[in-house]
């Protein structure tokens, strides 16, 4: 059934390849012909393995995750004995400096 539908629309698109209006009409038919609505899960599980069903709790968990991406990432950067991170950054500047290296 899927292959027959694909072949049907491919044929129609080929027949109308020089007619942009008809091409868009066919594409809109295909797109609007999606019988399965997109659904969201009924619950979420956070990093602590706690099940969240309340929308406000879920939103707060997502917010917490994205707000902490940077700080959590900085914790994983290896520090050298001189206090600088790999690549020469000491974490104290508000600017980014890029320098050329040859290896």
The main β sheet shows up as: 2 strands, antiparallel
Helix content: 40-55%
- Rounded mean pLDDT is 81
Radius of gyration: 26 Å
- Strand order in space, largest sheet: 1-2
Shape field: flat
Spans of at least 5 consecutive residues with low confidence? none
Structural class: mainly alpha
The first-to-last residue Cα distance is 58 Å
How many beta-strand elements?
2
Number of DSSP helices? Answer: 4
Taken in chain order, the helices and strands follow as: HHEEHH
Strand content: under 5%
Descriptive keywords:
mainly alpha, 4 helices, 2 strands, two-stranded antiparallel ribbon, 46% helix, 103 residues
Give the helix/strand layout.
Elements: H1 2-15, H2 20-32, E1 44-45, E2 51-52, H3 55-67, H4 69-75
Describe this structure in words.
There is one protein chain. By secondary structure, the protein is mainly alpha-helical. The protein has a domain at 1-53. It contains four helices and two strands; from the N terminus they run H-H-E-E-H-H. It is flat, with a radius of gyration of 26 Å. 0% of the residues are buried. The model has no long low-confidence stretch (mean pLDDT 81).
Task: Give a brief description.
The chain has 103 residues and is mainly α. It has helices spanning 2-15, 20-32, 55-67, 69-75, and strands at 44-45, 51-52. The chain has a domain at 1-53.
